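Hey L., structure's done. Input below.
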Amino acid sequence: MMQRIEFYDDFKLYLEDYYIEQKKRFPHFSYRYFCNKAGLKSPSHFREIISGSRKLTSKMLDAFIKGMDLTDTDARYFAALVGFNQSNNATEKQQLLMQIRGLKRKVKQALVSTDQYEYYSKWYNVIIRELACQFNWHDDYAVLAKTIIPPIRKSEARKSIEFLLNARFLEKHPDGRYYQCEPAVTSGSEVSSLGIRAYNRFMAERAQKAIDEFPTTERDIQTVTVGISRDSYRMIKQEMQEFISRVVRIVDDDKNADQVYNVNVHLFPMSASIKNNGAGHE
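Output:
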């Protein structure tokens, strides 16, 4: 099944997936059928645009939006994506990129208040908030504790559940199962809480150990070392935040979660600044 349009960063890939999806659902669907519906004269336009041999002009853009029956929001996203992909002007591309980001669906994330920062003080609180809702563990804290990687003590699992219930991160329903009070939570950006620092430090250490503990089919670790300016740093940081937002949207759509993963994205200096010919540091 094709993804929602906001997950695409290339309109031609979206068109290709759209065609495949329609062909699966409606065997009679064809390039000619689409072009007739959209009011386009040549049935080859769709195929030529996907291949890149023809540009999607502003006049044809309206026809494609009509042919695909896009909603107003999806139509605005598609139009901005087309402009971004086809523009050769750096300033225009940056403006269209900001427009695209503004059109992406936002997942509501509850902000963890300062009096709830104990949530991050024990790394497994975050794991248990997810894991406790994925299966009916019948209040067997030993089972819950050993399901976590690395395993924790039964007493730690019990105290964590008690905290998560009291702090309203979790609630227990009459059927005996646990549910999240909020589907997504965040500490907010640039929080300097010691508890959050300790949590991030632990997860960074776990990422290091995962290289040897898990096969490549169960983990993915990528590294790139680059030379950048402060302007590029800010742009990359923004891209990282957008990537995390996309991850949150994917998770929000996933109704069949059966395992807890941690996603770490790091950006940090590996040298001092050599601005001003190395005369000083920024």
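Residues 230-253 form the longest helix (24 residues). The CA atoms of residues 213 and 219 lie 9 Å apart.

-- N.
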